Write a sequence for this structure.
């Protein structure tokens, strides 16, 4: 089936003649041919967004908030349909797809507070007859370049606040699962968003580079792998745009000897294997402190992991996780697993020959558990982004925290302990952006902000929460003076200060 772009409130056929295959990861079948936009198609969509933006930006924030309110209702109305479309292209289970939508929806709910968020500041009588006020105005047209792993949540985290601030957005979704972003754009129009304010243009590097080089685009938000985040940040900022680029992760969960081992093991299985490990907040490294803790942890993990049910999303509610996104991703993950074996890690749960009857062409990877992983191994250094959990045994708390601190990524981390002192020390010292204490995936809620440190983030303002309103708006400060404070001839009447 030939797919489209979504431009000016309607599905539009691509004209470049270039297409990318969109798969059903469970069956391996191609279910769509996605057009890859040319430079001129992208430039045209950007120009149309620029034409639509001024009227939207001039609308008062309360009216824009009403569009957000309507969007919440429409997403809830269409939740099942959206979740089905999401699972069919991404492969994640239906409950996971609904979670993906729900976490995006929560940011739209947060955006209903736009009038409050965009309120300015005012200083009365800054001088004689002088008042000073600051206002937050939209940037104009902004771009969002998004990853495959949360095809609803990631676009909504960016499009919601960008629109609420009065911008128009050009979204370049992942070429793996673009249907839900386009369905969301359609719903925004139904919610009352003027056409052209939310363009979805599909494409690859050509489309992205056009966004980065466009004089019209004022801000760029990117979420994806670290090398591309770094590239996009450099090119966007070199072109004078503001940019926030979120990259990859390798999240460590430290298990102290006093931790509740059942809780820690359950948390690691959910956080390590949920959504087939294709989450930037997935826990991919468990660091038990002490040999005895490590033995107990591996004993608790092994039977839990062996019980996980890997199947297509259509197989019922007890499916733990589905396929990974592409055959390429599957081969890369299996290659990394082999490197772990070759480099001397102990493969405690081995599903290298995993295959699902009836779905032999699907991109399924069974769950894997490695023990005795060391920091020099590729499976430790690399973000695997698959259902693989590595246990790195640490001799002490200092060694464990040192591992997480020395890793190049700094997205999320967690500690399992009953000791308040240790937990507090960990939260205080760790050089990582999001920290869980007896919480495995510490994803902040919509009214806080989400972002990593080190090579997990380039830029300064985080996703959602107050930072997103700062990122998508700019401050203008006005100083005004009126005649009653001024003597004839234009001099200050200093007596007026008395
Ligand atoms: P990716 O970097 O391959 O692709 C992301 C986007 O960049 C896509 O839209 C893609 O089309 C585009 N792109 C790819 N190569 C490009 C190039 N050479 N030039 C210009 N654009 C290019 O990432 P992905 O595989 O879709 O997503 C998985 C990654 O995203 C993981 O590393 C994961 O950790 C990360 N992620 C991070 C966060 C976060 O908040 N830090 C959240 C979700 C995902």
């Amino acid at each position: 089936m030939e797919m489209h772009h979504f431009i000016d409130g309607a599905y539009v056929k691509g004209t470049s003649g270039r297409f990318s295959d969109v798969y059903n990861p469970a069956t391996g079948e191609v279910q769509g041919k996605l057009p890859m936009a040319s430079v001129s198609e992208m430039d045209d969509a950007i120009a149309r967004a620029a034409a639509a933006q001024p009227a939207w930006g001039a609308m008062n924030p309360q009216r824009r908030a009403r569009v957000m309110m309507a969007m919440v209702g429409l997403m809830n109305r269409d939740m099942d349909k959206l979740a089905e479309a999401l699972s069919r292209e991404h492969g994640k289970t239906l409950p996971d797809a609904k979670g993906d939508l729900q976490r995006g929806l929560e940011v739209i709910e947060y955006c209903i507070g736009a009038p409050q968020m965009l309120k300015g500041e005012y200083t009365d009588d800054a001088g004689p007859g002088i008042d000073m006020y600051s206002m937050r105005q939209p940037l104009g047209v902004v771009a969002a370049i998004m990853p495959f792993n949360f095809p609803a949540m990631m676009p909504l985290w960016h499009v919601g606040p960008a629109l609420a601030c009065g911008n128009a957005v050009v979204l370049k979704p992942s070429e793996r699962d673009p249907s839900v972003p386009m369905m969301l754009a359609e719903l925004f129009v139904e919610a009352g968003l003027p056409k052209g304010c939310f363009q979805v243009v599909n494409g690859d590097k050509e489309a992205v580079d056009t966004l980065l080089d466009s004089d019209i685009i004022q801000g760029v938000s990117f979420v994806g792998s670290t090398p591309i985040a770094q590239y996009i940040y450099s090119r966007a900022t070199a072109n004078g745009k503001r940019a926030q680029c979120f990259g990859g992760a390798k999240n460590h969960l430290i298990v102290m000897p006093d931790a509740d081992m059942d809780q820690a093991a359950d948390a690691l299985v959910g956080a390590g294997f949920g959504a087939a490990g294709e989450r930037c907040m997935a826990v991919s490294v468990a660091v038990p402190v002490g040999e005895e803790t490590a033995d107990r942890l591996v004993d608790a993990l092994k039977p839990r992991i062996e019980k996980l049910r890997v199947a297509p999303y259509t197989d019922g509610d007890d499916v733990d996780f589905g396929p990974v996104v592409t055959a390429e991703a599957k081969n890369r993950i299996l290659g990394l697993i082999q490197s772990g074996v070759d480099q001397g890690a102990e493969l405690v749960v081995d599903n290298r020959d995993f295959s699902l009857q009836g779905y032999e062409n699907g991109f399924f990877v069974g769950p894997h558990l490695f023990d005795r992983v060391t920091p020099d191994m590729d499976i430790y250094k690399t973000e695997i982004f698959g259902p693989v959990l590595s246990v790195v045994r640490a001799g002490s708390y200092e060694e464990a925290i040192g591992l997480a601190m020395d890793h190049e990524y700094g997205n999320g981390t967690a500690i399992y302990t009953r000791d308040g002192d240790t937990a507090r020390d960990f939260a205080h010292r760790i050089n990582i952006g999001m920290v869980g204490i007896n919480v495995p995936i510490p994803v902040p809620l919509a009214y806080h902000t989400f972002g990593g440190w080190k090579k997990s983030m380039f830029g300064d303002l985080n996703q959602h929460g107050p930072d997103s309103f700062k990122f998508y708006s700019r401050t203008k400060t006005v100083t005004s003076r009126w005649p009653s404070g001024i003597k004839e001839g234009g001099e200050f009447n200093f007596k007026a200060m008395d």
